[in-house]
Design a protein that fits this description.
Radius of gyration: 22 Å
CATH architecture of the domain at 65-186: Orthogonal Bundle
CATH topology of the domain at 65-186: Arc Repressor Mutant, subunit A
Shape: globular
Number of helices: 7
Number of strands: 3
Distance between the termini: 37 Å
Largest sheet: 3 strands, antiparallel
CATH class of the domain at 65-186: Mainly Alpha
Structural class: mainly alpha
Strand content: 5-15%
Strand order of the largest sheet: 1-3-2
Length: 186
């Protein structure tokens, strides 16, 4: 039994699947809030191994990147990603609603994060010049300097935990698989 199998066994012990006669059930309707087909077959061993590995890598890599950024630069990974999103824009600013969508957080959660970044002088809120109802988050020079300082820590972590461990061809296959998963979520 290799280390991954040991981890899978420890974190997800085998469960006996009862043998039952399938009952006809209506298909799940995600639009109606119904998800999950009770008649769907359980994951096979390879599928379970992929699922558990995905969860472990995603959770541990994000946690470690977050911890390393906080320890070195007092920035959460979420804060870092906001600064990256703003820095990528020609004028270093985005509407708050667009930034929330890119950051994969609710508008209220983004407001909290931007409040913290604003207190540190990394971001400022500016009114939209053409629509007074809209507010932009804009990266300040201080915020850009903080991003530049944190970049090596982020890059090193991404390489250490995600990009460098697999062989190049495995990374390409993993990227295709993740893109397919992302498409399924759209």
């Amino acid at each position: 039994m290799d280390a991954m199998d040991q981890t899978l066994t420890e974190t997800h012990p085998p469960v006996a699947t009862p043998v039952t006669t399938p009952v006809a059930t209506p298909a799940a309707d995600p639009a109606a809030g119904q998800v999950g087909d009770p008649a769907a077959p359980p994951l096979d061993a390879d599928q379970m191994r992929a699922w558990v590995a995905f969860i472990q890598v995603a959770t541990h890599a994000l946690d470690r990147l977050d911890h390393e950024l906080q320890a070195a630069h007092q920035l959460t990974l979420g804060d870092y990603e906001i600064l990256v999103s703003l820095s990528a824009e020609p004028e270093h600013r985005l509407q708050m609603s667009t930034l929330a969508a890119r950051s994969l957080v609710s508008q209220s959660r983004l407001t909290y994060r931007v409040d913290r970044l604003e207190k540190r002088g990394f971001v400022e809120r500016v009114p939209c010049p053409t629509d007074g109802r809209r507010i932009w988050a804009e990266l300040t020079p201080t915020g850009f300097a903080a991003l530049e300082a944190a970049y090596p820590v982020h890059l090193e972590g991404v390489r250490r935990y995600v990009v460098d461990p697999p062989a190049r061809e495995d990374l390409a296959a993993a990227t295709r698989a993740l893109e397919a998963m992302l498409a399924a979520l759209s």
